[in-house]
Amino acid sequence: MRDAVALDRLEVWKQKGQDLSKCPVRHVLDHVAAKWTTLILMELSKGPARFNAIGRALPDISKRMLTQSLRDLERDGLIAREVFPTKPPSVEYRLTEMGLSLLGPLGALIDWAELHASPIAEARRAYAAG
Amino acid sequence: MRDAVALDRLEVWKQKGQDLSKCPVRHVLDHVAAKWTTLILMELSKGPARFNAIGRALPDISKRMLTQSLRDLERDGLIAREVFPTKPPSVEYRLTEMGLSLLGPLGALIDWAELHASPIAEARRAYAAG
DNA sequence: CGGAATCCCAGCCGATACTG
DNA sequence: CAGTATCGGCTGGGATTCCG
């Protein structure tokens, strides 16, 4: 059929009888999944930005979710948070090297999605119709 | 900083003031997000399989979620469902060409996750430590 | 400015039981 | 074999309010 070498990594984990929720691969997938983290990584790919700047760039995000998403990404070492003791204090977020390296694979996925957007929409219509 | 050509596709959508939930890119991301669809695509990358065969390969999935996940993938044209009028009836699922083409980008993401699994785990420990 | 705390609901998802 | 039906818990995430 096709060599699915990469996919077998998940397979191996599954066959070890491990808890799927602790699989490290799932963890990354969950970031991609999370409603906002992809957008945030995208925004930061343009350069470091401050809390409210990111918020303004993503109009529909609440402060609550922005905070939480930033924490999640920081926790996993994908972005770094730096506080400047100005008055009032400002906080800057930027991609780490690891976060930067994620943009490649993530971009590939987004490219695929863009390329297949209309076939998918078509498939949905066809499915709904019959 | 870095060319983020791919990522700008999402950006464009956002700036059009569109509802993010209807962005076609999000549809794909949601599949990746969903707890089981990635595993199912993985399993089917090895070749066509029947309902219960997939279920046995993914021991922790319930029939309910298996059905639902298969429907989701079928709805978007990533897998195809074929019923054989045997006795008792059997149903076979296989990747479509579009589904097959998703394995590449998805595999790249999984490779990245596998490669950075331990740095991420390390970052989490460091973060938890304070 | 950059958050934290609280309330609350929609939906995801698991368990269980039933069907053609 | 390949589903469908129903119930219910858990949590993601929106709205709002308060704080250093």
Automatic annotation (TrEMBL), chains A, B:
The keyword DNA-binding applies. InterPro entries: HTH_HxlR, WH-like_DNA-bd_sf, WH_DNA-bd_sf. Pfam families: HxlR. Signal peptide: none annotated. PROSITE patterns: HTH_HXLR (PS51118). Keywords: DNA-binding, Transcription, Transcription regulation. Residues 23-121 form the HTH hxlR-type domain. This is Helix-turn-helix domain-containing protein. It comes from Pseudodonghicola flavimaris. The lineage of its organism: Bacteria, Pseudomonadati, Pseudomonadota, Alphaproteobacteria, Rhodobacterales.
